[in-house]
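Subject: two folds for Thursday's group meeting

Dear M.,

Sorry for the delay on this. The cluster queue was jammed most of the week, so I only got both jobs back this morning. I'm pasting them in the order they finished. Each block is the input sequence followed by the predicted structure tokens. Could you check whether the formatting survives your parser before we put anything on slides? The first protein is the one we discussed after the seminar.
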Amino acid sequence: MAKTIMVLFFVSTLFLQGTLGSFICENLPTSVCGFAIASSGKRCLLENLTGKDGKVEYQCKTSEVVVANMKEHIETDECVDACGVDRNTVGLSSDALLDSQFTSKLCSPACNHHCPNIIDLYFNLAAGEGVYLPDLCNKQRTNPHRAMIELSSNGAVLEDAADAPAPSPVSF
């Protein structure tokens, strides 16, 4: 019940922000910062800093990464769960793609067909490592153990990133 009230309150503040101007990462609560996109189309990211008392505090910041065709978006809890990501992670790494359990969730239809923001993010992370995410997902579905071996051996099974189609949050 309390969670429902908080979600309704938060959604109503987004409508108010949209009416008054823009959706700014720095104004988001840290609990929804991860996997959000501001009005500018830039990704929001969670950063940690040490306060004067030595305690670690978290802040939502605007990154320089622009997401094509997506603005004012906060990923749903359903997508976060379906894709196996953690909204409270500080920094993202393509190393997660080496975890077959994570890749299995990321490549699942529940994530792949309904969560274009997360897919776009990991598509780009994978491409930065020379890995074409749709090929990785195909290998994951057919032979997960082999996919992880080939990925960890420098992506030999996957297309060269230069030959891969341009990134898009399209299902594969």
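Second protein, same layout:
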Amino acid sequence: MPPFDEMLLSESDVRQPYEKFFEWFAAQDTQDLASKAAEAESFFRRTGITFNVYGQEEAAERLIPFDLVPRIMAKGEWDRLALGIEQRVEALNAFLHDIYHDQEIVKAGKLPARLIEGNEAFLPEMVGFTPPGNVYTHIIGTDIVRTGEDQFYVLEDNARTPSGVSYMIENRETMMQMFPELFAQNRVRPVETYPHHLRRSLEAVAPPACDGNPCVAVLTPGIFNSAYFEHAFLADQMGVELVEGSDVAEIDGRIQMRTTEGYKPIDVIYRRVDDAFLDPKVFNPESMLGIPGIMDAYKRGAITIANAPGTGISDDKAIYSYMPEIVEFYTGKPAMLENVPTWRCAEEDSLKYVLEHLSELVVKEVHGSGGYGMLVGPTASKAECEAFAAKLKENPSNYIAQPTLALSTVPILAEKGLAPRHVDLRPFVLVSDKIRIIPGGLTRVALKEGSLVVNSSQGGGTKDTWVLRD
């Protein structure tokens, strides 16, 4: 059965959200559009929109390829998806509060204690502590895949330090500059308001020590980090300071940043530094990226850290496999958004099944990300499957496996016109005094024909994502 085509019902019949775009495209010269694509690439290069590829000496900094054809969603499609995302985000925050307090979900037998005990992402330092506003995951990027008209699955929850939002905003800005007539013809909901909403959301969870007008800063590991462009972009767009660990110190019980007028207290810090490097007094003593004393100030109510330390445990793919139970346990209702069916290799029967069907499955590390450390069975060689089977047998609890889904397709601009390619979607969610879901998100596209791998580090590209108002 062919994958679900988000634009076409048949060769000549277009789905409603794409009708105006399809009519516009038919009147375009493909060579002119190819020139526009080159113009967009030149714009991204001048702006410095790059990411670093670790472990590869050549071309360490790369552009993420951008495709001009937008992904378009009807209002009803988005509204149903957003309801499911909101429910999931509520459950994730409740789950994090619970596991760092009474662990009722473990006592109820809904989640094995072994998935928390000894989990490298679980921070004992957070036990018994409640962050300001009781918010753990202030910024979430939930990866969604689609397989049918009304069939969406959550691929993973990115609740630690989700990236990619700068590409969402720049993709939109580029499209609006190059094709203003398209936006005049289609009522597209805005995504460029994200920095405004992000700042408002962060200010709303200011700590008890704040005495009005919260001071927000973005903490970056520095220019060599793969997402440094995004850190600088968001700080600039929010109108706040971008700081490194060396710019900040604990003074008079507050975390303060160096300015031209002396040190100034920070109330909320949007950190893009991993837990292990956040505070050398508490975690890795050799870290030069973090802020000595920030955890103590945090627990005294002198600063808010977004996202909260210890949220990474909710990104664990073994815990992901229990998300339907987690959602129902904390919300009292079945999950509106389904998980991708998942085999936990730590379980003997599941491991047996995975080893017998390795060539049909996608196998991932429970702490993996970015498309690394995984096996895509249908495209792997026999030797690759055999090597991966040995790793599975050696450390089964480090892996989960999932079926190869027939991801939906969206057209890209190819040499001979439009051509379908597989996509996923990362909507961005802000959590503080309320839950704000940005209408759209980052669509990642597998540019190679037939490929299911959309990660930028593995050759994928991005698209502008349109949610129509009606």
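Two things I noticed about the second structure. The first strand starts at residue 50 and ends at 52. The CA atoms of residues 332 and 341 lie 21 Å apart.

Cheers,
T.
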